[in-house]
Design goal:
The chain is mostly helical. The chain is built from one helix and no strands. About 0% of the residues are buried.
Length: about 100
């Protein structure tokens, strides 16, 4: 069998090579821009996540402080009530003579 040689008709056009190179350069440029955009987006997401984590830590800290304060106040009130003599509903205050 003999081989058939096929030569494209547009191969003789001098602009074909330029267009091919231009398409390649544009493709590379777009890929670089896309990668840079994804990195920028990732950095923004990381920054947002860190901000949310700091806010959640602050809220949890304030909730713990508030819970501790309420528990301390309740203990003090219970202690005051339990240290009163029976039959007295209000705390005793010393009288001045």
């Amino acid at each position: 069998m003999t081989e058939i040689e096929v030569s494209p008709e547009h191969a003789a056009d001098p602009n074909t090579r330029r267009v091919g190179i231009l398409v390649g350069v544009v493709g590379i440029f777009l890929s670089v821009v896309t990668i840079a955009s994804h990195r920028s987006h990732t950095q923004a997401v990381i920054h947002r996540t860190e901000s949310n984590d700091q806010w959640a830590f602050y809220q949890a800290k304030k909730i713990r402080e508030n819970t501790s304060d309420v528990a301390t106040q309740r203990r003090r009130r219970r202690w005051r009530r339990s240290s009163r003599p029976p039959g007295i509903s209000t705390p005793m205050t010393p009288r001045e003579s």
